[in-house]
């Protein structure tokens, strides 16, 4: 994998521009192996002093298509997703496991991934109802990843979306099982609840989802991330590998599922896939910046935990200002992928890219 040229910003990794088949295949052909160093857990976090950057909300909204109300769109779509999630995972026996599943699934959150799925479906001519089961499946899997990520054996976090993490409420054993249950039910819900779509597209969507979260997707990014704590020689290529898999894979899957189920052509699916890969990397660059510039109260999760875990981050390798420049570049490149689509229908995706770039939590 080629890494970003920091001196010119002239080229983004060749992997981002690679045309791919519907299957998820971002891994190198040469395997990567890691020797896990002893994890260092310092007693205190050294703050990175940076100039606080404030972004005017009106400026962000104006960067989307004039007349498009992004805030109203997000509120409307998030409400639809929340209602669908509430209906999909009901409170039934065994009560404890379903309470734990619902606790994290319905705890709030921006619903960026399911909204991406719905917006991509509508962009290629589909309807919200067609993509809603897939959107819910994406959010179930995202929630599973958060529950497991917060466990003591992983990031050992006690705050998520402004609330105590799942394992601090229900215990580690139930938290693990709640994540497992959400993972399995996501596939059941996608396969059984999607209507009005030809079976071949549903099968393709199921395959897409499985690949995005398995050993060639989300899990790959997670395991390399775990083994990277305390590494002193990790560079941008290494960091990009982690986040193209750990973060971008699920965002990419969201738009791929939406465009597949919405009836998109192969070329449309690939352009939207590339768009999502850019904003997936963008999401993580911004996340890394926020982790060292915002408080836990502002973020709704523990701030500074990447420093505490001695993780490799973009600010650590590039500095705050270069990280911000990189984020701007990724946003521009992402939006270039939407040229050629109906710009009125593309407005939600354009606004979502800007939202990810300029979010404050």
From TrEMBL:
Gene Ontology CC: one annotated term: cytoplasm
Any Pfam family: polyprenyl_synt
Pathway involvement of the protein, from the record: Isoprenoid biosynthesis; geranylgeranyl diphosphate biosynthesis; geranylgeranyl diphosphate from farnesyl diphosphate and isopentenyl diphosphate: step 1/1; Isoprenoid biosynthesis; farnesyl diphosphate biosynthesis; farnesyl diphosphate from geranyl diphosphate and isopentenyl diphosphate: step 1/1; Isoprenoid biosynthesis; geranyl diphosphate biosynthesis; geranyl diphosphate from dimethylallyl diphosphate and isopentenyl diphosphate: step 1/1
Stored NCBIfam families: FPPsyn
GO terms, biological process: carotenoid biosynthetic process
Similarity annotation: Belongs to the FPP/GGPP synthase family.
CC cofactor: Mg(2+)
Coiled-coil regions listed: 317-344
Species, as recorded: Rubus argutus (Southern blackberry)
Gene Ontology molecular function: geranylgeranyl diphosphate synthase activity; metal ion binding
Name by which UniProt lists this protein: Geranylgeranyl diphosphate synthase
UniProt entry keywords in alphabetical sequence: Carotenoid biosynthesis, Coiled coil, Isoprene biosynthesis, Magnesium, Metal-binding, Transferase
